[in-house]
Amino acid sequence: MRMSDVFKLAFKALRDRKLRSLLTILGIMVGSAIILALIASSSGLSAGIQTQVERLGANTLTVSSARQFFAGGGQTTFQLSQQDVNTIRSFQGISDVIPYYSRGATISFGSSSIQGMLIGVETSALFKMYNGLSMYSGSLPDSYDPSAAAVGYAIAFPTGSSDQLTLNQMVSISLGGSTGSLVFLVKGILSQYGSVMFSNIDDTVFISLQSAELLLKTQYFSGLYVITNTPEDVTTVQQKIESYYGTQVRVMSAGAMLSSIESITSQMTVFLGSIGGVSLFVAAVGITNTMFVSVMERTREIGILKALGYRPRQIMGMFLSEAILSGVLGGVGGTILGYALSFIIGGALPMSGGFGPPGQTRSSTAFTPVFTPELIAFSLLFPIGVAVLAGLYPAWRASRMNAVVALKYE
Q: Which of the 8 DSSP states describes residue 126?
């Protein structure tokens, strides 16, 4: 018997038992899809964070004020000032300390209104803070110009809007929690960049540090960027800052955050991946059960085939082909479903963070799943392997059936 005929008979057998076959294939699809989606999503998450770490630099720390709570229900927030900048600069192993102000803001021009961030920072330090950042057009605002600003790419060219910002155009900025608005002249537009430490640079307006101090009417910074001499100095400097300030500040390093998130995602992947494994195990039990029932229902057919001269190897191949076909359909369907599911997971698990203290509006970003040829091959072939193992024993039982007994079966 030709191989094509074997699989035609297998397909007919599955079609004759539509509901039973559909449920079995669906179990394979679910297990395969969950495993593919989780591996692709966790790989995309790690790759996305690694990209952000590289943009910020492995030798960069962020220092922000920590909110402290008391037994009586009160709370206080330590505030960072220029004195803290000078103190931290005096520690060994530090190349630079860059203070910044940040506020959630609504940026408006023309008919467009965008939720983003207003960042006040020494503008000459922007390219030092963000590796690879460049100007799309214009230049960075002067440190002493209180009315000038540089805007992110997504603000200048908002998605779904015909409005576009040009140089020397005015933008109106409403700060979160305040009334009224501030007006700035656009001196520069930054090139498309993306997220850094989960804060989207493309949705940010940058003004000078002095301008932010005047406009926000405060001398206390939202946080500090601390740049060490080398990546090896990060741990030592972090320990010095934490030892000096205790629980008054939060110190984060991009590398440590990457390690923590990778640890969490790997644990989540193992846990949820085990659920996918259980689904495949249940599907394997379903295949075994389906094939045992199929062997019982087709006992007389097996007897007739043996009487016609079919060898045990051919009969075993006929039944095993049903399991293989179930695995193929489940693997292909699971790969397609897992591909779609991975993008849903990537969009449903945004990582938020950014410049400001707790409770402040922040940007968020989702991560694009990563698919490799090895992962796709695994998603297609693993369900087939599970199906073959599940169908092996029932197929062997069918091939060893006595022809006379099978013909007498009612």
A: H
Token pair belonging to 65: 């004020």
Both structure tokens of 9: 């008979």
Tokens found for residue 35: 């495993």
Q: How far does CA 356 lie from the centroid of its chain?
A: 22
pTM of structure: 0.64
Give the three-state DSSP class for 353: strand
Q: Which residues lie closer than 8 Å to 1 by C-beta, 6 or more apart?
A: 314
Q: Where are the alpha helices (DSSP H) in 298-372?
A: 299-307, 312-348
Q: pLDDT tens, position by position, for the chain (410 residues)? A: 566 666 677 777 777 778 878 888 888 888 888 888 888 887 787 777 777 777 777 788 889 887 654 444 445 568 899 999 999 999 999 999 999 998 888 888 887 888 888 999 988 888 888 888 899 999 998 887 888 999 999 898 887 777 788 899 999 888 865 555 788 999 999 999 887 766 788 999 999 988 888 888 888 998 999 998 888 888 899 999 999 988 888 888 876 776 776 677 677 767 766 776 777 777 778 778 777 777 777 777 778 877 878 788 888 888 788 888 888 898 899 999 989 888 887 654 544 444 443 334 344 455 788 888 988 998 888 888 888 888 888 888 888 877 777 676 65
Element (H or E) spanning 363, and its range?
strand 363-365
